[in-house]
Design a protein that fits this description.
With 139 residues, the protein is of the alpha+beta class. The chain contains four helices and nine strands. It has a single domain, classed as Electron Transport, Fmn-binding Protein, Chain A (Pnp Oxidase, Chain A), CATH 2.30.110.
Length: 139
């Protein structure tokens, strides 16, 4: 969730029992990888298996690539990436809200128009609500 323009901040919610929660808190950073409908099955698999027991890159065939400013890897098959450093955490019920300052961002040029704006029908982003997935359909 985007929460501030100056400085650029995003917020994610992670349950403390999740392996990613410990990694984010310990490393003080995280990446937001923006998937396309072309990898929806892999995205779902990453959400239902734990990195404690499974190497998700090996399991799904997704490709780790180095980030520009953080140690966490990015996912090559995603069309957009935000690299974030943790600036705040807040316990909210059974989840921790993690606020990250965006320190770098990237997007595949083939999903942008000539002005550098995202074209949703090219990017085909996936939006998840519970276990239902939605996307932008071509007109």
């Amino acid at each position: 969730m985007y929460i501030s323009q100056r400085p650029p901040l995003v917020c994610i919610g992670v349950a403390p029992p999740r392996y990613s929660h410990d990694l984010i808190v310990e490393q003080g950073e995280f990446a937001v990888n923006v998937p396309t409908t072309e990898i929806i099955e892999e995205m779902h698999r990453c959400g239902v298996v734990s990195g404690r027991e499974v190497n998700k890159f090996e399991d799904t065939g997704l490709t780790p690539i180095p980030a520009q400013r953080i140690k966490s890897p990015l996912i090559e098959e995603c069309y957009g990436h935000l690299e974030c450093r943790v600036v705040q955490t807040h316990t909210c019920g059974d989840h921790t809200l993690v606020v990250g300052e965006v320190v770098a961002g990237s997007a595949d040029t083939d999903v942008l128009d000539e002005s550098g704006n995202l074209v949703l029908t090219k990017a085909k982003p996936v939006i998840q609500k519970n276990w239902n997935y939605h996307t932008v359909k071509k007109p």
